Queue: 3 jobs
Job 1
Amino acid sequence: MAKAKTPAERAAELRKLIDHHNHLYYVEARTEISDRDFDKLLQELTDIEAAHPELVTPDSPTQRVGGAPIDGFEKVTHKVPMMSIENSYDEGDMRKFDADVRKALGAGAKVEYVVELKIDGVSMSITYEDGKLAFCATRGSGGVGDNVTSNLKTIAAIPMKLAGDKPPKVFEARGEVYMTKTEFARVNKEEAKKRAEPHKNPRNLTAGTLKLLDPKECAKRKMTFFAYGTGAMEGITIRSQVELADALKKFGFPVNPHTKVCANIDEVLAYCNEWDKKRKTLDYETDGMVIKVNDFAQREKLGFTAKVPRWAKAYKFEAEQGVTKLGAVTFHVGKFGELTPVATFDPPVDLSGSTITHASMHNASWVAEKDVRIGDTVVIEKKGEIIPQVVDVVKADRTGKEKVIVWPDACPKCGGPVEKEETGTSYNFICANTGLCPGQLAKRIEGFARRTRMDIEGLGTEVAIQLVESGLVKSVTDIYKLTKKQLLTLEKFGELKAQNLLDGIAASKDRGLARLLPALTILYLGEAMAEVLAEEFPALDSIVVASADDLAKVKGFGPKRAQLVREYFDSDAGKKVVAELKELGIKTTHDKKAAPAGGLPLAGKTVVVTGTLVNYDRITIEQAIKDAGGKATGSVSKKTDYLLLGASPGSKYDKAKELGVKIITEDEFRKLIGAE
C-alpha cells in the first residue's frame, strides 16, 4: 500500500502538474486533460494552501489571481529601451529595406529573415531574476513604463518561473499581451447591461484592462501572451532570432507558430501576402508582419539609424475597407458646444474583426466638401486598424432619393440655440447654451480631470457622463462637493472605487494655478499659454481684475485670446466658478521657482524633443525644460536652440540637421540642466 503523501508533497506535485498542463495548452497548443479536470487540480491545490498557508509559494499557480487592489503603478526604467520599428506599406519599401541590409553587410553575405505576425496588442516586458518572475512593465515612453506585475500574473500564458534547472541570472522576455476575438465578444456580451456602448476593439480593451488597479477584476477578462523578443540578459548567450524563439519556448513562453525563416525578400513578400489573405481566420487581431534579420551578429553590424533599427521592418497590411449605406446622422456635442455629425450605417460593416455601426464625420465643412447625404453609398475604412471613418462617397450609386444632411436648430443635448461658427475657410455649428448644456459639461468635466490639468485619477469619460447625467455634478466645482454616499448610488461604484475617486479629487486641490487655468476650459487657453499666464499673473485674483489690454501684453497672448479670457471671468458662470474655487479650498496661486544664483541653464532657449527618452515622458520632459528656464516647442525652426534626441526620433531630427540646430543626447541634456 502506497504511503499517503504529506500536504507539502501533494502541493508540490500539484504545482508541477498544473505548470505542465499550462505549458501544453499555451506553448504546445494541445491538451491531455479536460478543462474540468484541470480546474479540479487547481481547486485541490487551493484547498491545501488554504489549510496550510505556510506551503504557499510566490510562484504557485494559485497566486495568479490572489493579489489585493493596488494604489497605483510604479515606474520602471527599461535597461534596454523598448524601441519601435519603422512601418512599410508597399513592396517597394520592403525591397529597398532588403537592398540596404545587403549593402551594409557587404557583398556575399548570406542574409536570412524571420517573418512574424504583428499582433495587435499591448507591448510588454517581463523580467526574471534567477528564473523567478521579478516584474512586468509596459512599453510606456520606451524608456520608462508602468509596473503591471500584479495584473500580468493573472495571465496563465506567462510563466511564474522559467522552466528548466539552470535559468539565467537575468532574462527579460518581450512580447505582446492580447485578447482573443472570442474573449472580446464574451466580455462585451457580459457587460452589455453595464455599459452604454460596447468596447470598441480587443486592443483597446486589453490596454484598459491592464490599467485596472484590482488584479481580481483584471483576471475576469482572459488575456494571453505571445513572446517574440528579449531585452536585458545575463548568464545566457543567444545568437539569432531562431535561437531566441527556441529559448523562449524552452523557458515556457508561448511563441506564435506562424513564424517563418525566409532566404530572400521574395519569400518574405510571398509570406506577407499569404497572411494578408489568411489573417481573418485567426482568433486574434493582426495588422501586419514584422521582418527581422535572423543573425544577431549581423544585427549588431547593421545597428540603428537615428530613428529605428536597420535590421527590422514592419510590413503593414492595407487598411480594410467596406461599403454600406449611410442610414442616419446624429449629432454629438463637444466641450465647447461643437456639433459633430455621427453616421449610422445600415447595415453595419465588419472591418478588422469588429462590427462598425457608427463613425464620426468631422464637422460641417467636411460634410459639405464631401457632399455626404443620408442614403448615400459610402466607403468605410479603419484608420490604423482602430478608428472607423467615412473616406468616400460612391456618387455613381445615387438614385435621387438621398437627403441632404440638415443641421439642427436646437442642441440635441439641451435644446439650446445652435449657431454657425466660422474659422477662416472652415465652419461648424455649435450649441450656444454654454453654461447649461449637459453634453458640453460632461466633456468639460473629463477635460478638467485630465492628467495634464487637475490630474484626477478615476475621472474619465464614462464617470464624467455618469456624474452629469445623475445630476450630481452641474458645474466643475461640484466635483469637490461629492460624497461617498452619493457615488455609491452610481452603477459600478463600490466602496473602493468611490474612495479612490474621492482621494484623487482631494489630491487635485493643490495642483496650482498653471494646472487650474486650462482645466476651466477657456477657449484658446491650453496648458502652454496657461503656464505663461500664471508666470505673469501668479494669483487668480490678479487675472480676474486684469484688463484685456494687460492680458494682451502677456507673451504669445494677443488681443483675441486676451478678450476670450476676459469674457470668461466677466461672465456670471465664470464669477461663480472663481468664488466657489476659493470657498472649496482649491489652490489658485502659482509658485514661481527661485532662479539659481548662476541663472537658469536654459534661460531664453528653445528646445524641441524627438524620440523616446529613458528618464522622462512627454509631460515630465516639458516640465524639466520649463524649470530650467527654457521653452519646449513641438516643431523645429531656425529659432530652435537645441534638439533633444531620444530613441526612434521622427522627421524633426532630419529638419534639425538640415537647419544646423545643435543636437544633444539625453545625458547631455541632464548635464546641461544639472540633473547629473
Job 2
Amino acid sequence: MNLSFLGISKYVPSDVIAAWIFTLIAGLLILIYIIKKRKLPVIWDYLTTTNHRKVGLMYILFGFIFFARAGIDALLIRSQLAVPNNDFWVMQYEKYNEVFTTHGTIMIFFAAMPMLLGLMNVAVPLQIGARDLAYPFLNALGFWMFFSGAVFFNIAFFLDSAPAVGWTGYAPYSTSEFTPGPATDYYVFGVQISGIGTVMTALNLIVTIIRHRAPGMKLTRMPLFSWAALITSTLILVAFTVLGVALYLLMFDRQYGTAFFSGDQGDPVLWQHLFWIFGHPEVYILALPAFGIFSDIITTFSEKRIFGYPAMVVSLALIGFLGYMVWAHHMFTVGLGPIANTFFAVTTMAIAIPTGIKIFNWLFTMRGGRLSFTTPMLFALGFIPSFVMGGVTGVMLSVSAANFQFHDTHFVVAHFHYVIISSTILGIFAGIYYWYPKITGYMLNEKLGKLHFWLFLIGFHMTFLPMHITGMQGMPRRIFTFRIEDGVNATNMISTIGAFLMGIAIMVFLWNLVKTHTTGHKVNADPWNGRTLEWTVASPSPEETFNPMPVITESDAFWYAKKSGKPLKTTNELIASPIAKPSILPALMAFSLFIVATGITYTWNWLAIGGGVMFFTIIIIRTFVDERAEVYGKGENDE
C-alpha cells in the first residue's frame, strides 16, 4: 500500500496502518466514555490526579504489570535453555532475540525504575513533612510520560515488530542498515519518552527534598530513604540526559541518514561509551533507593537508631560519585589500552569500599537490637548475603585480565542479576510490604508474605548461582541453545526450575493482594511501630497531611516522642506547600508525544506534526488558561 503522498512510508503494510487507526479510534472512544464519569469515577480520578500517593500507586501498579510481562519473557528464556538442542515452539532464534531484548528493557526501564519512583512518591513527602511534591502537575506528567513510553514499547509485540537488539541497543546492529523496519524505533522512542518522564520526577524530588522539608527537618535529620532518593535523583539528571543524547543520535542515524555510529566517519564504540556512562550509574540508580528502604526497615524492626548515620550518608554519596568513574569496565575487551583498563579496574574495586561500610553498619544496627522478623525484615535480611555474593563476583570482573575470560558469558549474567535482584527487586518487595498500609490502608498477610519471600529467595539462588558455573565452563550469554557435549545440562535445568519457583512466588504475592483486599482489615496510622513521620498520618495517607506541621528536633523524632510519652511539637505557621490540583493535561501531553513517536517511526509526517501541534497547544493551555498550582506561606528550609 503506497501512501507516500501523505507522508506515509510506502514500506508500511496495510494491516499495520489499519491496526494503528483502530487503536487510535478505540483510544479516543474510551477516553470519551471515561470523561462522562458516570460509571468510572475512580478511573477518572486517577487519570487526572496529581496527588503524590495516587501517582505513586500508579507507578507501582503499572510497573508491576510490566514486571510480570518481563517475568514471562524470563520464563520463556529459561524454558528454551532447560535442555540441550531445545526447539521450544515459540522460541526460534529471532524470537529468542526479541524476548531477551524485551525482558531486559522492560525490567530496567519499565518495571524496576517506576516501582522505585512509586515508592519515592509515596514515602518521601511524608518522611520529610511535605504535603506533596514541589510540582504536582510535573509529577503527574512524569508518570504519564513513563506510561506512554512503556505502552509504545510494548505495543510493538502486538504489531509483530518487537525489537531484537538487546537492552543495550548496541550499534551498529541497532542502525537501519542492520535492523531496518520499525522494530528498533519502538526501542528508541519508548525508552526516550519514558526517560523524559524519569528526569521530570527526579527534578521534582530534588526540589521537594531541598525546599519543602518540615520545620527543623535538617538534611542531617532526614531518613536514609529520603537521602537515597535525593542522591538517586541527582544521578538520574546526568545519566538519563546522556542516554537521551545517545538515543537522539541513534534516531538521526536511523531516520535521517546521519552516521554517528556507522560508516566511515561514525564509530560504534561511541554508542558504548554513551550507553555505559548511563548504564553503570543506572545500576546505582536502581540500588541506592533499595539501600535506603533496607536502612529504614532494619532500624524499625531492630528498634535501634541506624548505626553510623553520617557514614551511611557519606557512603551513599560516594557510591553515587564513583558510579560515574567505572563505566568502561563494561568495555575491557574493546581495546581501550592498558592505562584505561587499569584506571577503570581500580575505580571499580574502590566502589566496594562504601558499599562494605553500609553492610557493616546494617549488621551493627541489628546487633543488640530487638529484632522482629516481619516480611519486610526478611527481605532486608535476605538481601545482605545475596548482595555480598554479587559484589564479590563484581570484584572478580573488575580485574581486566580475568574479565577477558568472563566477558559475554553466563558468569556476567549471574553477577548482574545477583546485584540487581538482590538489591532492587528484594528492596521493592520490602518497600511494598512496609509501606502498603500507607498506600492502601491495609496490611498484607504476613504468612503469605513470608511464603513469598522464601520461595522467591530460594528460586533466585537456584536460578543464578548455577550460571556462575555455566559461565566459567564457557557458555556464552545471548545464546538460544547449547549442545549435550557442552556439559552444562544439569546446571541449566536447575536454573530453569529456580526461575519457575520465582514465578510461583509472584503468584503467591498476587494471591496475597487478593486475599488482603477481600478479607483484610483496615490498620491504624502506625501498624509497624515506626520511627519516621510517615507513620504519624492516617493509613492510607490523606491528600491533606501535616496540619498542623510537625517541628523536628532530632532524627527519628516520632520514635522518641512515643518513647517519652509526649506528642511531637507542632506549629500552625503555614509552610510553603503546593496544592495538588487535578488535571487531564498531563495525560494528554504524554499521549501527544506517543503520537509524535508513531508518526516518526512510520514516516507518517502528518501524524508527527499533528502530535507536535497538540503538545505545544496543551503547553499554551497550561500556561495561559489552566489555573496554576498555588503555594502559600514561607519556606523554612532554604539552606
Job 3
Amino acid sequence: MRQIIDLNYKWAFSKEAGEIPQTIPAHWYWVNLPHSWNNIDGQDGGNDYYRGTCYYAKEIDKSELPESEQYYLEFRGANASADVYLNGKKLASHDGGYSTWRVNITDALENQNLLVVAVDNGINDRVYPQNADFTFYGGLYRNVSIIAVKESHFDLDYYGGPGIRVTPEINGADANVEVEVYLTNAKAGQELFYQLKAADGTVVAEGRQSADTTQATFKIENVHLWHGRKDPYLYTAEVTLMDGENVLDTVSTRFGCRTFEIDPEKGFILNGESYPLHGVSRHQDRWGLGNALLPEHHEEDMDLICEMGANTIRLAHYQHDQYFYDLCDERGMVIWAEIPYISSHMPTGRENTISQMKELVIQNYNHPSIVVWGLSNEITMTGKSNPDMIENHNILNDMVHEMDKTRLTTIAVVSMCDIHDPYIQIPDVVSHNHYFGWYGGDTSMNGPWFDNFHKEYPNIPVGMSEYGCEALDWHTSNPMQGDYTEEYQAYYHEELIKQLFTRPYIWATHVWNMFDFGADARCEGGENGQNHKGLITFDRKYKKDSFYAYKAWLSDEPFVHICGKRYVDRVEEETKVTVYSNLPEVELFVNGKSLGKQTSEEHFFYFSVPNAGESVLTAVAGDCKDESHIRKVEVFNEAYRLKEKGAVLNWFDITEVEGCYSLNDKMSDVMKAPAGQELFMGLMKQIGMQKEGQESMIKAENMGPMMEMMGGFTVLRLLKLFGAANVNLTKEQMLGLNEQLNQIKRVE
C-alpha cells in the first residue's frame, strides 16, 4: 500500500546562497511549508519584490521512512521553476509554478540525505507568467511530501496526474462510467479491483479484471446527477492493484455525473435545465501570506463565495490548489480553469504553455465542477494577434480537445481587442474583460457592447470574464468614476448587474475580483501593492457594499443590508441611503420613525434621509434587520477623501479656469473641442515616439478601441494610468498640459 509522508516541517531557507550546500549552513533560517519569500515585499508596492533564486534544504533520515520499493517526492506548487538535488546530485527540473509534479528519488536515496530545492521566480522568456497584474510569489508555497509505493503502482510520473481517469456518460436515467487507470511496472498475474461508491459509501458497481487491461466501464442505474449548487452529488471510484490477495496500491477519486452545454442564445444549460452562471474570479493569495495558504484559508474563501450566492468561479490565472478544486466539487461551483498564458505572447514560451496545459487537464480531469479550459487571458494586451500566437492557440485548442472530449475551451479577451481578430474564433466559447465605467467609457456601454457582439456573431457563445472597479475606505455622496470610493463601486456593480444578468445569452459572468489581491506594481487608491477591485478586502475581514448587491440577486438566504456603514459624517441636509435585500419590500426607520416602505424588483432600494444630529438607521425586510449610523457635520470629513501617497499631482492641486478645461475634466468633454483633440493627439504622438521599440499598450492598432474606452477618464487619471504602459510624465509636464487646457474654451 502507498504511504504519504508529510515533509512540510522544518526546512532551512536562504536567499543568499550561491551554490548547493553539502550540509545545512548555520546562517540559513528555519521555515515551515507552505512558504513564500514574497509574502511581505510582494504586497507593499514599488514593483521591487525579490525575483530570483532561493534555496530550501531539508535533512531526511531514510530509517524514518516506511519500508518501500519506490519513493517519490511530490511538490504541489513551487513558483515558478525548480531544480531538485539529493545529496548534491541534480535529479530533476520543473517549469511552471502552479501545478503538482513529482520526482523519483529511489536510486539516489541514502541512509542520511540532504534534499535541496532551488526555486526561482526570476524574469525569463520561457516560463509563464512574466507580464501580468498580480504578484508572482516565489516559494514552496504548497505541500511537499514523499509518496512510498511498491515497484508495481499506479502511475506517479505522468504530468503529476492522479493515475486514474473517470468519464461518466449519461444515458437516460442511468450513467455509463468509464474508469481508466495508469500503471507503472505492472506484472503478469496482477489484477485490478474496481468499486464505484455512492456518497454514503454504498457500492453501486464493482468488477475485477487482469491488470493487462486498464480500462473498464460500469453502469450506475438511476444515477444521481451532480447539479451545481442545488445538488452537488459526488460518487467515488476506487481501484486497487492486487497480486493474488495482496494489496499493492490503491487510488480513488470522486466524480460527478452531469451533462452541460453552452448555447449562444440560451447560455449555460446543466442537465438539460437553464442554469445561468453568475459568479466571481478568484486569486489565491492572502495578506501577509502570499500564496502560502492552509486548508482553512481555502475553506473561508469558499464559504464567502457561497454566502454571496455565486454559482461559478473563474480560477484565475493559473492552476489552483487541488484542495480548492475539491471544495468546488463539494459545493457545486461551476468552474473555469486556466493556465497563465497571459498578457504578452512569448515566442520562446510555447513549450511551457503546452506543458502547463497538459498538467492542468491531466491533474484535474476528474473534477465535475470544471466545464471549460481557459487557453489564455488578455494575450493581445500589447497588440493584435500574430501568426505565432495564432498557431500557439490552435495547438493548445486541438490538444485539449484530444485530451478531453467532454469539455469546452475558452479564452478571456482584452476589451480593446478587435472582435474580428481571428484568434477569438479558435475556442469553443469566448468571454471578454470589459471595464467600461472604470478604465474609461461609462457603465452604460457594457450591455450594448454585448448586444453588438451577439448580433455580429450569433453562433459564438459570449461571456463576461472580468469586470469591476476599485474601492477602499473612501466615501462620498457624489460618487464619480475613478474616485476609489465604496459608493462608486456599489453604483458600478448595481449598473452592471442590471445589464448583464438580464441578457440570457451571456453564458457566464465573473466579477473581477472576489477578493483584493497582491499586485506589487500597483500604485493606486492610496494603498500601494494591491488591486482593490475585490468585493471583500485582502484580509477577508470586510465585505464591501458591492458584495451585498450580488447577494441580493443571487442568494436565497433572506437578508437586508444598509450601505455606507463606514460613511458616517455627512454634510448634506438630506442624504441618500441605499439598502440591498433579496426580499421584495424594505422599510427604513430613522431614530425609530418610519420613512416608508419600498418595493424593488432590482433588489436595490434608495431612500432620501433627513440628516440632522446623530441618526440611527434601521432597515427592516421581513424578519431581517440591519442598523447603521450617520452624523450631520458642517465640513466634509477629509479622512473620507483619497489623497494619493507619492502622487505627482492630486486633483485638488490643479488650477481650474471657469469656462475652460483642466486635467480634472473627462476626456470625452475635452475631445468635443477641436483644440482639445489636437492637443491630445499631439501628446499621444509624442508618447508614441518616446516609446518606439518598447512594449506598450499605446499602439496605433489599439487607438480606436482605447479612445472609446477613455472617454470616461479625467485627463489626470488617464495620464496616471499611462504608467501601466511604461509612460510616466513629470509634474511639470502635467502642469504644462493643464495650462494649455486652461486656454481652451469649453464646448457644451
